[in-house]
Amino acid sequence: MKQTVIVKTLIASISLLTLFAPxxxxxxxxxxxxxxxxxQDGDITYAVGVRALNFGVELGNGPDGSTGVDVLKFISxxxxxxxxxLGYYSEDKGVAVSGGVQVGASNNVFVGAGYNSxxxxxxxxxxxx
Length: 129
Description:
By secondary structure, the protein is mainly β. 14% of the residues lie in helices and 55% in strands.
């Protein structure tokens, strides 16, 4: 139990540190939406998300009917964009931590993989405008 609290605290601290890192200036606000499907404890989980200005928000449906929202911080690299996030879920699931990567598959499509402590492992497909 104590080790779990320490790990969650470290992940939250790293998330906050990346949250306040300087961002590259963008000329336009162009959102990048995605859908996500995953699995946790034998239940299928779903989510929709959007990214803009290296921040993201993901609304997800987890096991046992839990619903929650995650706030994500992306680190933009040339081909791959790793992210970390923190969220809150209903049905006594509480605080969730998440992380993953998104990779550009073409000029207008990206794919990704991630993990959320409430929704489990998931795959993502999204579009760029």
